[in-house]
Amino acid sequence: MSETPPDLTRPGVSRRGFLQGSSAVAGSLGMAVGAAEAQQAEPSADARTIALTVNGTRRHVTVEPRTTLVEALRDTLGLTGTKIGCNQGQCGACTVLMGGTRVNSCLTLAVMAEGTEIVTVEGLADPTGDLHPMQAAFAENDAFQCGYCTPGQILSAIACIEEGHANDAVEIREYMSGNLCRCGAYPNIVAAIEQVRDSEQG
Amino acid sequence: MAQTINTRVTRTDARRKVTGAATYAADEIPAGMLHGALACSSIAVGTVTSINTSVAEAEPGVVAVYTHETLPDYKTVKGFYAGGPGSASFWPMEGTEIRYAGQPVAYVVAETAAAARRGADLVEVSYEEGESRIHMTPDDSFVVGAGEDSDGMILDQGDLQAGLDSAAQSVDMTFTTPFQHHNPMEMFAATAEWRGDRLTVWMPSQSVRTLRAGIAGAYGLPETSVRVISSFVGGAFGSKAGITPYTMLTIAAAKGVGAPVRLIVTRPQMYTVATFRPESEQKFRLGADAEGRLTAFEHIETAQTSQFDMVVNAGTHITRAMYACPNIRTEQRLSRSDTNTGGFMRAPNEMQTFWGLESAMDELAWKLEMDPVELRRVNDAREHPTEGVPFSSRSLMESYDAVAQSFGWADRGREVGSMTDGDWLVGYGCATATYPTNILASNARVRMQASGNAYIALAAHDVGTGTYTIMAQVAAARLGVPVEAVDVVMGEASFPVAPISGGSTTAASAGSAVHDGCMKIAQQVATRVSAMSEGPLSGVDPAQVTLDDGTLRGPNGQSQSLAEALSMLPEGEVEVIGEFRHPALTNELVAATFKGGYGTAGPVTPDFAMFAFGAEMAEVHIHRYTHEIRVPRLHGAFAAGTWLNRKTAHSQLLGGMVWGIGSALHEVTETDSARSRFLNANIAEYLIPVNADIREVRVEMLEEQDDYVNPLGVKGIGELGIVGTAAAIGNAVYHATGTRLTSLPIRMSDLVST
């Protein structure tokens, strides 16, 4: 992708990212939503089966146009590692990587994810069970307490480094501010990201 | 064995939490599960005149739409403040009455979450709206149980007026704190599955046994027919303590449709279907002699409560424990308004009251021209000022001295506005933190095998506090095995009795039960191997055998590792129930806990007053022109007895201080007074600190020994860190600007005149 990925880290900006990301499917989406309203009496008349590539595996799911990516992941595919913290794009708990870009999966319709590569928290550790360096750094730095925002934080943190937005603590704090942590583990989250960044550079 | 207590141990559940394998309530998806959604009232007070469910019922995927007229077999429980397990005394959907905005009026069950939400949107409700008022009015307030039954709600000791008259300096100030909502990251959720008369409920809970006892009681089922599971809790902070309507509605709906139903309460609905921190007013009158010694201390707290419950979070009982003073008067008042019932939110007695007390103490220090740290020092109480018992331990000034050194308090400019950094006004402020050491009875099942593996089960919870880890550490330390060899299961009501995860009680109470279990294992093993004809401890008096880091030691130097001794038993293992019964726990209190309630002793016992202490210092920067407020540094030093795990304890204190910054600068549930609604009911407009708001937060953990509180010497720390933070920040704002703030949160607009 040549263009800069949309900045999905801040409230407000995330909606713009959502709209930009959805422009490719806007035509069919608009039609589908209209159809849903027109055909209320017919259950799941506009449900369709799509192929999602999640953590490297291609899987078929039947979704309605209104089905969000997070609900397809959790309720249909059983990948409950991705959490719902607000269901309105405010908290970042549902962050997944879509085509390498961090997105709020509650603001992403499942149909928008067709043909993209989705990475969830379940896809980070390698098949032998070794943790991704970011997972290990979160554990070591106690970068969470309750752990509910953690899958989203970890995926966001990986993207934060990938985007080149982890140059110093100030920048990390800014670019990780789309992921809320009510337990207040922020300083430990920043420490974990700095540790991974430094080990990658070293 | 490596030391396992007072060290930095990585959470035993860390791997599960970073891989997504930790299962929170809404992650359990029983076969055939349907989805629930709530429709909630748009008015605050009035009557439902009609509900049209036909449009919702016609929505594709909708299975059922229940109202107060159609929800089958819906049960409720008594509210907490009426002695029951419920979050409130008034239950929605029992009739047509509406008593607060956002009250559930219909429950939709559908095949998908999206269909359920759409169905809820399509429920058409008509109301007859009555008069309502969302804010309390201190002029219309009352004292709970005034008179002989006041339980200290009014306390008058010495002669307050004489103390004020004789004071060299005095302050008379009124502070306010707003409605706040817990907003744990995990949304409220409940999944109910009936199989005949057997019910399973998955729900994030701070007290699974309360849930089970309440649900079983409501349905007239034996407790063995009800499973309540809460393996992981995505933050609670007091919001997941009682039985709330969404749980009982989901249980009834699941029964109605004959299938498991999961409800995930929406973030906006979380503001009205459960509890919150009530708004409050804090009035202080303090007097001091020329040396700063307090001559008069008066605190009147008025807190908001609902029309149907009396939420008494007695903050005056905490403030009056802080400083030595011969003339003390406190009064605990309530004022009613039209909301759901509030409840406990992290430091429910302390956050609001210490905003007032510690701001007033700061003002007094300025009037006395005294260093505010020194004002605390001359008034540091060695015994409880109104209870006449000594503190079991009290490291308040040690905390101040430690934080002053790390923070550089000595560099503070002596005058208001004397410090700047370019266009930024700089201020330093300090405040006291405290939290009572509450005690509850607890049991724990502890099993050790000759292999060196140990198993622990108890109905405690890990709400993010590190409970899984510290229970394993306590057992590992006593049994002499690695932490990884200890398997801990919790969060299920059928496990041995453990207290509510509230009031910062779990580490001290449940941890002490695990400790006791380990000691009992040692006793049993010693008794059996000493009776054997061979072996290192053969013939030893078992009463004289001690347990030292997993080694049994006889009186004359005999010793054998516990694992070796276990291998001599035919079973190869021993299993016991450890118990914690502090001498201050009366039979009535133990019975209350074992019945699913909260039998709390402390912080004052006949012998001691038990509190953890700390001190916080904040640096604020206020932009000279924009009045933007930043907290570049917040330091805290705390002493709370034994630190079980320096890594997780550090996170608890750090998280508390981050909450304190939120309380000081961000958090307020805004209201629509005309319609008595909470206005910013979402997690973007209800501001909580984001990563960019938090800069340097430093936590110092002091050593302190307290042999009275419990066998581990542990005081609770889940709430300590938030107490005083807002005042430290407010006091720093005064130092920077000369503006004394009395209302939370502090906003740029408060500083426009500076």
Automatic annotation (TrEMBL), chain A:
Q: Which Gene3D superfamilies match?
A: 3.10.20.30, [2Fe-2S]-binding domain
- SUPFAM superfamilies this protein is in? 2Fe-2S ferredoxin-like, CO dehydrogenase ISP C-domain like
According to the UniProt entry, the coiled-coil residues are none
Q: Which domain of life is it from?
A: Bacteria
InterPro entries per the record?
Answer: 2Fe-2S-bd, 2Fe-2S-bd_dom_sf, 2Fe-2S_ferredoxin-like_sf, 2Fe-2S_ferredoxin-type, 2Fe2S_fd_BS, Aldehyde_Oxdr_Iron-Sulfur, Beta-grasp_dom_sf, TAT_signal
Where is the chain membrane-spanning?
A: none
Keyword line: 2Fe-2S, Iron, Iron-sulfur, Metal-binding, Oxidoreductase
State the Gene Ontology terms under molecular function: 2 iron, 2 sulfur cluster binding; anaerobic carbon-monoxide dehydrogenase activity; metal ion binding
Name listed for the protein in its UniProt record: Carbon monoxide dehydrogenase small chain
EC number, UniProt record: 1.2.7.4
Leader sequence range is none
Q: List the lineage, top down.
A: Bacteria, Pseudomonadati, Pseudomonadota, Alphaproteobacteria, Rhodobacterales
The question of whether Metal-binding is a record keyword is answered with: yes
Q: Does the keyword Translocase apply?
A: no
Q: Which residues form the 2Fe-2S ferredoxin-type domain?
A: 48-124
Automatic annotation (TrEMBL), chain B:
Locate the coiled-coil region(s) and give their ranges.
none
Q: Per its UniProt entry, what is the enzyme's top EC class, as one word?
A: oxidoreductase
**Domain annotation Aldehyde oxidase/xanthine dehydrogenase a/b hammerhead: ranges:** 19-131
Q: What is its EC number?
A: 1.17.1.4
Keywords of this entry: Molybdenum, Oxidoreductase
According to the UniProt entry, its GO molecular function terms are: iron ion binding; xanthine dehydrogenase activity
One matching Pfam family, short form?
A: MoCoBD_1
Q: Which domain of life is it from?
A: Bacteria
The protein, known as: Xanthine dehydrogenase molybdenum-binding subunit
